[in-house]
Amino acid sequence: MSHSVELSGIGMSFGTTRAVSDVSFKVEAGEFFSILGPSGCGKTTILRMIAGFIQPTEGRVLIGGRDMKGLGPNQRPTAMIFQSLALFPLMPVWENIAFGLEARGISRAERRRKADELLKLIALEGYGERMPGELSGGQRQRVAIARALAVEPGVLLLDEPLSALDLKLRQHMRAELRALQRRTGVTFIYITHDQSEALAMSDRVAVMSAGLLQQVATPRQLYDDPATPFVARFVGETNAIPGRITAIDGGTATLETGLGALRGRAGPGAQVGGQATLYVRPEALIPGTDDANNLPATIDRVDFEGAFALVHGRFDDGAALAASVPSTRLADAPEPGARASFSFQPRHGVVLADA
Amino acid sequence: MRELFQRFGGWLASFFLILVAIWLVGMVLAPNLMTLDYALRPNLPPARIGGPEDSYSLANFAYLANEAVHRTIFFKTVWASALVTLTTFVVCYPIAFWMAQRATRAQLSIALMALIVPFFVNEVLRTLGWYIILAYRGPLNAVLLGLGIIERPVRWQGDLGVLAGMVYAYILFMLLPIYNAIESLEKAQIEAARDLGAPVWRIHWRVVIPHAKAGIATGCVFTFMLAAGSYVAPALLGSPGSRWFTEIIYNWFFEGGDWNRGAAYALVLLALCLLVVLVTLRIFRVNLADVAK
Amino acid sequence: MSGADRIFRALFVFYLAGFAFYLFAPLVIMSAASFNESRFPTVIPWQGTTLDWFRAMWADRAMWEALWTSAVVAFFVVVISIPAGTAAALVLTTLHARARSFAYALMVSPLLTPGVVIGIATLILWRQVGVGGGLLLIVIAQASFIICYVMLMVVARLQRFDRTQEEAALGLGASRFMVFRRVLLPFLRPALLASAGLAVLQSFENYNTTLFVRGFETPLTVFIATKVRTGLTPAVNALALIMIAVTVIGAVAYELARRRRLRDNRAADLPH
Ligand SMILES: Nc1ncnc2c1ncn2[C@@H]1O[C@H](COP(=O)(O)OP(=O)(O)OP(=O)(O)O)[C@@H](O)[C@H]1O
Ligand SMILES: [Mg+2]
């Protein structure tokens, strides 16, 4: 049984520090939902409020439609996997996994059986009698997951569970987690500050900055339609060209910039006369000139990466340039200091009002 | 307090609090306050307790101040304890330094074992060992006579005996804190000082001792407190001329039959120890948390 | 190495030897005296080797009673001081900065109080309710400061505890009590065992405090001290030798166990 999770207007203050302010979103039952944001932005705090380790100073948490106010972590249908894993070092692996069942008063034989079942699920059959200290990082990781799954939670909360692993193992575990989530259908709320992780795994992603919710969207939308300047800059690479909006016409905004008038989609909050910035992805920049949206620049350096070449430099207004150009379109590697021009389709640029 | 309840839930938290309250209130505060109450009242036969004479006064403390013999013994206990502390420090410091900075791993392990083992042996037994050694016809006199160092047996029992027994008894309390403190001093600092041409005594005075001051303070505080409050060593190794303040207190309780006066004396001893603790901590600028480790 | 250094070093070795001699001579001489036929315990003159004093000690009813008294006292001291010391440590660690340093000062104060004062204060308090010196007061008076040792050892261990383990357990549905029983308590176990050992030793060896609250009871230390003053024979040395042997073996075993545990702990601690 998986549950939906709804946060409505929750906030958390620790004394005078404001860790989270007025965050609302709803995670559907069975969804793989990620919370993405830089270190210290309040991700763990949100998760701990959902799990019930801390009570929000304002707002409500609903799980499966039920208000969780006053319920402790042991009364909620959630299970959490901690940043540090927090396995019980003095219990063998199987007791770790069966701990939640023990708490529910299930008989020892039954616990053992269930633990073995889960050990099989995480491909650690026969490791039941080991102590957690005798496992590798990835194995511990899986034990922590099995321990959380053993209680058949409606919602699984994962706090950067892969951060301690090396890159290779991390990629492997990502796939395993995603498969596991599909198989079990449990709602996953997954915290990470690694955007590629969030984009690759999630159905939807919430982006946070400094305790504030920036945007909740699918990975694709997040990338293509960032709702705030923060999201535009934080998720993926981008070129940012500042200016002032002179016109908005049928969803397309015209921005007066140091490079002349540029056109892009009008994002949320874009208003005529307002200071705004145009954001364009590196791969949307096309070398050469076009009828409109031309961006003259000076090239500093080209990193050849096989299929693509990454071009770094400066636009003539001083903004940094990053373009990802198919190698076939790049005649000769330009010398550093060479002049170049790029253009882009208006639908590939987004204009967002400056914060 | 709220965190305690959050962490352990109502039942456990209440249980813990009750235990702690019983200990601190029932076993620490109340007995001392009652002792103070006793110390401030006169010693009366049961029939007259609560009567008109049963009023608070400082008479019991004044008695100590005016009774020349007791006063002398009190001050003697103070300076003798200070002497014990100083001697113990002098004896222990080189060993502590050696263990912390010079000894190899194996040497250290043996040294720690060798120090801890006698400490685990009962204080009464340790004192008994000295009692036998220092006996008039005991081995020490026999050896010294045999070597021709002394002409006649010496009566060691008395001040010297008490000093030897006490230093022996409290070595570990002095040594371990100092050792721990010196251990955290980087060898490089000493080497740097030596490179600059500082003589040995100066390295210790300017580098090692300042670094180890918390440990030294701890060792001194404990040794002084234990020495001043000691009963075994003066009782077994002392002579009538080397009476200790604790013996006077004991007599008020079990021979003089005046508990009130005994309580006042005990409080004076307690106040002395607390004063020494506070002054030492102040001088060495150490806080209590560093002491009780 | 310069000449001065060499002299200095030689002096130090000499000092070290003297120190070791100082440390062990009393114990060795006392032990040796228990085999001497002399009526007064000494090693000079040696009047012949005998085991009679061990027999005499073994046959001494009063000694056995004293031993039993000490054992009973130690047992109850452990029973009281382990829970109380643990509770004190837990309360202390959940307090906030200012309250904590105050509570800390209060909790360690018995360690800075002379033993005789603790005994006297306990005696005086309980006289108010008509309880005189005896087993009960010995236990209470000893526990009042032995709790400090337990508290300090548990606090030291708690500092290495990873609180997220508690949260993990709670999050898996455990009650607060189960978290305590299954997660925290097993973690504290080594410290509790060590402090139980320490408590037994402290209780057995205590003299100053016990002297005032003993009433008509005679624990082992009091028994020995009384013997020394009233009728010292090498039988006391025989007892001493046995006690030394037991404590030395105990101390060595404890130290070895502690070292092994340190190693095990290092293996069991999860790297973060
Ligand atoms: N118990 C606490 N007391 C005081 N401040 C806290 C507490 N917990 C968190 N904070 C503060 O709240 C803010 C958010 O912390 P949080 O742990 O939620 O960040 P995070 O997004 O999980 O960061 P990271 O990616 O580094 O884990 C931080 O500024 C942090 O210092
Ligand atoms: Mg975090």
Structural account:
The complex is a heterotrimer of chains A (355), B (293) and C (272). Chain A has helices at residues 43-51, 93-103, 108-121, 137-150, 167-184, 195-201, 219-224, 229-234; strands at 5-14, 17-27, 32-36, 58-63, 66-67, 78-81, 155-159, 187-192, 204-209, 212-217, 239-249, 252-257, 260-266, 275-280, 286-287, 294-304, 308-315, 320-326, 339-343, 349-353. Chain A is of the alpha+beta class and 355 residues long. Chain A has 2 domains: 5-224, 3-Layer(aba) Sandwich (Rossmann fold), CATH 3.40.50; 237-353, RNA polymerase II/Efflux pump adaptor protein, barrel-sandwich hybrid domain (OB fold (Dihydrolipoamide Acetyltransferase, E2P), Beta Barrel). Chain A has a 6-stranded mixed sheet with strand order 6-7-8-3-9-10, with helices on both faces. Chain A has a 5-stranded mixed β-barrel with strand order 11-12-13-20-14. In chain A, strands 15-19-16-17-18 form a 5-stranded antiparallel sheet, with no helix packed on it. Chain A starts with a strand and ends with a strand. Chain B is globular, with a radius of gyration of 24 Å. Chain B has 293 residues and is mostly helical. Chain B has 14 helices and no strands. The two termini of chain B are 24 Å apart. In chain C, 78% of the residues lie in helices and 0% in strands. The model of chain C has no long low-confidence stretch (mean pLDDT 87). Classes of the chains: A alpha+beta (355), B mainly alpha (293), C mainly alpha (272). Chains B and C meet through helix 1, helix 3, helix 4, helix 5 and helix 10 of B and helix 1, helix 3, helix 4, helix 5 and helix 6 of C. The complex binds adenosine-5'-triphosphate (ATP) and magnesium ion (MG). Magnesium ion (MG) binds at residues 43-44, 83, 159 of chain A.
Core attributes:
heterotrimer; B: 293 residues; mainly alpha; MetI-like fold; 77% helix; globular; C: 272 residues; 11 helices; binds adenosine-5'-triphosphate; binds magnesium ion
